[in-house]
Design a protein that fits this description.
The structure is a homodimer of 202-residue chains. Chain A is mainly alpha-helical and 202 residues long. The first copy, chain A, is 72% helix and 0% strand. The longest helix of chain A has 24 residues. The first copy, chain A, is elongated and about 60 Å long. The N terminus of chain A is likely disordered. Chain A binds a DNA duplex (30 and 30 nucleotides) through helix 3.
Chain lengths: 202, 202
DNA sequence: TTAGTGACCATATTGTCAATAAGTCACATT
DNA sequence: AATGTGACTTATTGACAATATGGTCACTAA
């Protein structure tokens, strides 16, 4: 058994998990993924190192959880944009900008998150993959809505359109590419959004 | 003086340069940039290490020369495409494909060139910058010709259009991004070309 | 005067090994 | 039975010595 069954006393499993994640989130942000040790996390929650492994099978798994957390907040931002009832074009454009800003923030502001974001991409961590899948869903939804409302053209197969947009989004979202033009990313995102929107015109 | 003046006897300066470049080209392809030492090159052309520095100020300079060579062959390919008299759309699409194939070739076929290509991008080597500048010129030319012939729309400022296309091209051309989807790059290039062409429709 | 070099220096790279951290497990405590 | 741990093995890291490499210069030979 990886996780202990919850007994009479003591916090439930998920609470322990949450404790660990909270500690990890703090430590990773403060010291970075590499500089944070499992022992640090154990000490932070006042339990032994070994016990951490009852809830997470590896340090990587904790990293993935934090990575997922990161993506969750991004999802919330994008979800809000997608559901605000504006036109599909407008929402798509703002998805571009939001994605760019989020990535910039991760690199500039939260410098210590750099290594975890990097890892996530390089090693194809599942949350990153999942986020891409989710993002594709969002894009597809916007495209469909835009087509339904007559904003967008309908000839191109929807899969191709989505795939193309995801490729373009990658150049905004991808941390590797990003380091090279952080300063202009906001503008670039807008420029790319314009290009995509023109390509969607009926 | 960096380069010796040509005297009565012995090969002229530019021949020595060419010798060095030829040796470097061979060695870099065979062993990679990192594994090739200046001493190796010196031995290959039967001269001393110190003498190399009469023609190139640093190893980096030799790397840049090879990088430039690389770009020259790419330029030739693209130039041929641009001047073949077909429609602007067709040529632009083929520029996308050619760029993708070239980058794939560099990574897959000529595996040892990996590090030099990587360096060129990471450290902003001048030939790479120059190539981007040149490429932008090519793109601008195609856009202008397409606009003149009525193939492309004319409302968007030409600078914005070019910039956007360059950003999209980056995701095909950039080695960092590339490693992750080498297998599908050919298709992706076509998909992106279609998107860009739709965005250019009048 | 010019083609060319050996010997030299400073720095980057690599190898080594002890210290630290990840990850496991039998067992103690409640 | 459930919560929890100390002590252990294996994988990574860090610091430092040894080596290799990039780069310079005074100098020789024709």
């Amino acid at each position: 058994m990886l996780t202990p069954h919850s007994g009479q006393r003591g916090p439930a499993d998920h609470e322990r998990r949450d404790q660990i994640i909270a500690a990890a989130n703090e430590h990773f942000r403060h010291y970075g993924y590499n500089k944070t040790t499992i022992a640090d996390l154990a000490e932070a929650i006042g339990l032994s190192k070994a016990y951490i492994y009852k809830f997470f099978e590896s340090k990587k798994a904790i990293g993935e959880a934090i990575c997922a957390l990161q993506h969750d907040s991004m999802r919330a931002v994008l979800q809000a944009i997608v559901e605000d009832g504006k036109s599909a074009s407008d929402r798509l454009r703002r998805v571009f900008i939001a994605l760019a800003r989020n990535t910039v923030a991760l690199f500039f502001h939260d410098r210590k998150m750099h290594d975890i974001v990097y890892f996530a991409m390089e090693e194809e961590w599942t949350p990153a993959k999942a986020f891409r899948g989710w993002l594709r869903g969002i894009v597809e939804r916007l495209i469909r809505e835009g087509r339904d409302s007559g904003e967008f053209e309908r000839k191109t197969p929807i899969d191709e359109t989505c795939h193309a947009i995801m490729l373009v989004l990658q150049s905004i979202h991808h941390p590797l590419l990003l380091e090279q033009h952080l300063e202009t990313l906001d503008d670039d995102a807008a420029t790319l959004a314009n290009l995509v929107l023109r390509s969607l015109a009926p």
